[in-house]
Protein backbone atom coordinates (compact mmCIF):
# COMPACT_ATOMS: atom_id res chain seq x y z
CA UNK A 1 0.00 0.00 0.00
CA UNK A 2 2.87 2.38 0.77
CA UNK A 3 4.38 1.92 -2.69
CA UNK A 4 0.98 2.25 -4.39
CA UNK A 5 0.23 5.41 -2.43
CA UNK A 6 3.60 6.90 -3.31
CA UNK A 7 3.11 6.16 -7.02
CA UNK A 8 -0.40 7.63 -6.93
CA UNK A 9 0.85 10.81 -5.26
CA UNK A 10 3.69 11.03 -7.78
CA UNK A 11 1.26 10.64 -10.68
CA UNK A 12 -1.07 13.33 -9.31
CA UNK A 13 1.73 15.82 -8.68
CA UNK A 14 3.01 15.35 -12.23
CA UNK A 15 -0.41 15.36 -13.94
CA UNK A 16 -1.55 18.47 -12.06
CA UNK A 17 1.70 20.21 -13.10
CA UNK A 18 2.61 21.02 -9.51
CA UNK A 19 6.18 20.56 -10.70
CA UNK A 20 7.53 21.26 -14.20
CA UNK A 21 7.32 18.34 -16.65
CA UNK A 22 11.07 18.49 -17.23
CA UNK A 23 11.64 18.03 -13.49
CA UNK A 24 9.17 15.24 -12.72
CA UNK A 25 7.52 13.05 -15.37
CA UNK A 26 4.38 11.07 -14.43
CA UNK A 27 4.96 7.80 -12.60
CA UNK A 28 3.20 5.87 -15.36
CA UNK A 29 5.56 7.31 -17.97
CA UNK A 30 8.60 6.56 -15.82
CA UNK A 31 7.56 2.96 -15.15
CA UNK A 32 6.83 2.38 -18.84
CA UNK A 33 10.27 3.71 -19.72
CA UNK A 34 11.85 1.51 -17.04
CA UNK A 35 10.17 -1.54 -18.57
CA UNK A 36 11.58 -0.58 -21.97
CA UNK A 37 15.08 -0.16 -20.55
CA UNK A 38 15.01 -3.57 -18.89
CA UNK A 39 14.63 -5.12 -22.35
CA UNK A 40 17.34 -2.96 -23.92
CA UNK A 41 20.64 -4.91 -24.26
CA UNK A 42 22.69 -1.71 -24.37
CA UNK A 43 21.23 -0.51 -21.06
CA UNK A 44 21.65 -3.91 -19.44
CA UNK A 45 25.29 -3.85 -20.51
CA UNK A 46 25.75 -0.57 -18.62
CA UNK A 47 24.20 -2.15 -15.52
CA UNK A 48 26.62 -5.04 -15.94
CA UNK A 49 29.59 -2.65 -15.94
CA UNK A 50 28.34 -1.07 -12.71
CA UNK A 51 27.66 -4.36 -10.96
CA UNK A 52 31.06 -5.75 -11.95
CA UNK A 53 32.92 -2.67 -10.65
CA UNK A 54 30.88 -2.75 -7.43
CA UNK A 55 31.60 -6.46 -7.00
CA UNK A 56 35.35 -6.05 -7.53
CA UNK A 57 35.54 -3.14 -5.10
CA UNK A 58 33.43 -4.95 -2.54
CA UNK A 59 35.55 -8.09 -2.79
CA UNK A 60 38.65 -5.98 -2.11
CA UNK A 61 36.95 -4.41 0.92
CA UNK A 62 36.00 -7.84 2.30
CA UNK A 63 39.47 -9.25 1.67
CA UNK A 64 41.01 -6.39 3.65
CA UNK A 65 38.41 -5.72 6.35
CA UNK A 66 37.58 -9.20 7.64
CA UNK A 67 41.12 -10.55 8.25
CA UNK A 68 42.27 -7.17 9.57
CA UNK A 69 39.21 -6.93 11.80
CA UNK A 70 39.93 -10.37 13.24
CA UNK A 71 43.54 -9.36 13.92
CA UNK A 72 42.60 -6.08 15.57
CA UNK A 73 39.81 -7.69 17.56
CA UNK A 74 41.99 -10.53 18.85
CA UNK A 75 44.96 -8.37 19.84
CA UNK A 76 44.28 -5.57 22.29
CA UNK A 77 47.80 -4.27 21.75
CA UNK A 78 47.45 -4.02 17.98
CA UNK A 79 43.95 -2.53 18.34
CA UNK A 80 45.20 0.16 20.75
CA UNK A 81 48.07 1.02 18.39
CA UNK A 82 45.88 1.37 15.29
CA UNK A 83 42.45 2.50 16.52
CA UNK A 84 43.35 6.20 16.35
CA UNK A 85 44.47 5.86 12.73
CA UNK A 86 41.31 3.95 11.82
CA UNK A 87 39.08 6.56 13.45
CA UNK A 88 41.01 9.35 11.73
CA UNK A 89 40.68 7.89 8.23
CA UNK A 90 37.19 6.39 8.56
CA UNK A 91 35.17 9.65 8.17
CA UNK A 92 36.82 10.56 4.84
CA UNK A 93 34.09 10.56 2.13
CA UNK A 94 35.11 8.20 -0.72
CA UNK A 95 33.24 10.28 -3.31
CA UNK A 96 35.34 13.28 -2.29
CA UNK A 97 38.44 11.32 -3.26
CA UNK A 98 37.23 10.68 -6.82
CA UNK A 99 39.31 13.50 -8.41
CA UNK A 100 42.47 12.13 -6.79
CA UNK A 101 41.61 8.56 -7.75
CA UNK A 102 40.95 9.64 -11.35
CA UNK A 103 44.47 11.08 -11.48
CA UNK A 104 45.96 7.93 -9.97
CA UNK A 105 43.84 5.17 -11.50
CA UNK A 106 42.08 6.73 -14.48
CA UNK A 107 38.34 6.74 -15.13
CA UNK A 108 37.68 3.05 -15.56
CA UNK A 109 37.23 -0.05 -13.44
CA UNK A 110 40.19 0.66 -11.15
CA UNK A 111 38.86 4.05 -10.05
CA UNK A 112 35.31 2.81 -9.47
CA UNK A 113 36.48 -0.26 -7.56
CA UNK A 114 38.75 1.87 -5.38
CA UNK A 115 35.86 4.17 -4.44
CA UNK A 116 33.69 1.19 -3.50
CA UNK A 117 36.49 -0.45 -1.52
CA UNK A 118 37.27 2.73 0.43
CA UNK A 119 33.61 3.29 1.22
CA UNK A 120 32.92 -0.25 2.41
CA UNK A 121 36.13 -1.33 4.11
CA UNK A 122 35.71 0.68 7.32
CA UNK A 123 32.09 -0.31 8.15
CA UNK A 124 33.05 -3.94 7.52
CA UNK A 125 36.17 -3.54 9.64
CA UNK A 126 34.28 -2.02 12.57
CA UNK A 127 31.59 -4.71 12.45
CA UNK A 128 34.20 -7.48 12.37
CA UNK A 129 36.02 -6.01 15.37
CA UNK A 130 32.71 -5.70 17.21
CA UNK A 131 31.92 -9.33 16.42
CA UNK A 132 35.27 -10.48 17.79
CA UNK A 133 34.88 -8.39 20.94
CA UNK A 134 31.41 -9.85 21.54
CA UNK A 135 32.79 -13.41 21.64
CA UNK A 136 32.09 -15.23 24.89
CA UNK A 137 35.23 -14.87 27.01
CA UNK A 138 34.50 -18.07 28.91
CA UNK A 139 34.37 -20.05 25.66
CA UNK A 140 37.73 -18.64 24.58
CA UNK A 141 39.31 -19.34 27.96
CA UNK A 142 37.93 -22.89 27.97
CA UNK A 143 39.32 -23.55 24.51
CA UNK A 144 42.74 -22.29 25.57
CA UNK A 145 42.64 -24.46 28.67
CA UNK A 146 42.38 -27.50 26.41
CA UNK A 147 45.62 -26.50 24.75
CA UNK A 148 44.12 -25.04 21.59
CA UNK A 149 46.46 -22.77 19.66
CA UNK A 150 45.47 -19.10 19.16
CA UNK A 151 44.80 -19.84 15.48
CA UNK A 152 42.48 -22.74 16.36
CA UNK A 153 40.65 -20.64 18.96
CA UNK A 154 40.17 -17.91 16.36
CA UNK A 155 38.87 -20.40 13.78
CA UNK A 156 36.67 -22.60 16.00
CA UNK A 157 35.43 -20.12 18.63
CA UNK A 158 35.93 -16.49 17.64
CA UNK A 159 35.04 -16.62 13.93
CA UNK A 160 31.67 -18.45 14.33
CA UNK A 161 30.74 -15.91 17.01
CA UNK A 162 31.76 -12.97 14.84
CA UNK A 163 29.90 -14.13 11.70
CA UNK A 164 26.52 -12.52 12.60
CA UNK A 165 28.15 -9.13 13.12
CA UNK A 166 30.16 -9.49 9.90
CA UNK A 167 27.02 -10.39 7.95
CA UNK A 168 25.22 -7.39 9.42
CA UNK A 169 28.04 -5.23 8.10
CA UNK A 170 27.74 -6.92 4.72
CA UNK A 171 23.98 -6.28 4.59
CA UNK A 172 24.48 -2.61 5.41
CA UNK A 173 27.33 -2.02 2.98
CA UNK A 174 26.19 -3.87 -0.16
CA UNK A 175 23.73 -1.10 -0.98
CA UNK A 176 26.40 1.49 -0.18
CA UNK A 177 28.69 -0.24 -2.70
CA UNK A 178 26.14 0.21 -5.48
CA UNK A 179 25.51 3.86 -4.59
CA UNK A 180 29.22 4.63 -4.45
CA UNK A 181 29.87 2.95 -7.79
CA UNK A 182 27.10 4.89 -9.55
CA UNK A 183 28.28 8.11 -7.92
CA UNK A 184 31.88 7.50 -9.01
CA UNK A 185 30.71 6.87 -12.57
CA UNK A 186 28.59 10.01 -12.49
CA UNK A 187 31.22 12.47 -11.29
CA UNK A 188 34.41 10.67 -12.30
CA UNK A 189 33.99 10.98 -16.05
CA UNK A 190 33.59 7.27 -16.59
CA UNK A 191 32.47 6.20 -20.06
CA UNK A 192 30.71 3.03 -18.89
CA UNK A 193 28.21 2.12 -16.21
CA UNK A 194 24.83 3.27 -14.98
CA UNK A 195 26.13 6.54 -13.54
CA UNK A 196 27.71 7.50 -16.85
CA UNK A 197 24.50 6.55 -18.66
CA UNK A 198 22.41 8.70 -16.28
CA UNK A 199 24.71 11.67 -16.84
CA UNK A 200 24.42 11.32 -20.61
CA UNK A 201 20.62 11.03 -20.47
CA UNK A 202 20.36 14.14 -18.29
CA UNK A 203 21.95 16.16 -21.09
CA UNK A 204 19.49 15.03 -23.75
CA UNK A 205 16.17 16.75 -24.57
CA UNK A 206 13.33 14.92 -22.79
CA UNK A 207 15.95 12.83 -21.03
CA UNK A 208 14.21 13.20 -17.67
CA UNK A 209 12.03 10.14 -18.38
CA UNK A 210 15.10 7.96 -18.83
CA UNK A 211 16.87 9.50 -15.83
CA UNK A 212 13.94 8.84 -13.48
CA UNK A 213 13.53 5.33 -14.89
CA UNK A 214 17.24 4.66 -14.39
CA UNK A 215 17.07 5.85 -10.79
CA UNK A 216 14.08 3.57 -10.14
CA UNK A 217 15.97 0.61 -11.63
CA UNK A 218 19.03 1.41 -9.51
CA UNK A 219 16.81 1.42 -6.42
CA UNK A 220 15.31 -1.93 -7.37
CA UNK A 221 18.80 -3.35 -7.88
CA UNK A 222 19.70 -2.24 -4.37
CA UNK A 223 16.58 -3.88 -2.95
CA UNK A 224 17.30 -7.17 -4.73
CA UNK A 225 20.92 -7.25 -3.57
CA UNK A 226 19.91 -6.40 -0.01
CA UNK A 227 17.26 -9.14 -0.05
CA UNK A 228 19.80 -11.72 -1.21
CA UNK A 229 22.22 -10.77 1.57
CA UNK A 230 19.39 -10.83 4.13
CA UNK A 231 18.58 -14.41 3.10
CA UNK A 232 22.24 -15.38 3.51
CA UNK A 233 22.38 -13.62 6.87
CA UNK A 234 19.31 -15.51 8.07
CA UNK A 235 20.71 -18.81 6.84
CA UNK A 236 24.24 -18.57 8.17
CA UNK A 237 23.63 -16.62 11.37
CA UNK A 238 20.39 -18.27 12.46
CA UNK A 239 22.03 -19.73 15.55
CA UNK A 240 22.75 -16.20 16.81
CA UNK A 241 19.09 -15.24 16.52
CA UNK A 242 18.08 -18.40 18.38
CA UNK A 243 20.53 -17.54 21.16
CA UNK A 244 19.14 -14.00 21.38
CA UNK A 245 15.62 -15.39 21.58
Topology of this protein?
Layout: H1 2-15, H2 27-37, H3 41-74, H4 76-89, H5 98-105, H6 109-133, H7 137-145, H8 150-187, H9 194-202, H10 208-236, H11 238-244
Description:
The structure is a single chain. The protein has a single domain, classed as Orthogonal Bundle (MetI-like fold). The chain is mainly α and 245 residues long. The mean pLDDT is 86. Helix content is 81%, strand content 0%. 32% of the residues are buried. α3 runs antiparallel to α8.
Features:
245 residues; elongated; 11 helices; mainly alpha
SS field, number of helical segments: 11
The largest sheet is: none
Q: What does the overall shape look like?
A: elongated
CATH class: Mainly Alpha
Note the quaternary state here: single chain
Q: What class, by secondary structure content?
A: mainly alpha
Quick summary:
This is ABC transmembrane type-1 domain-containing protein. The protein has about 240 residues and is mostly helical.
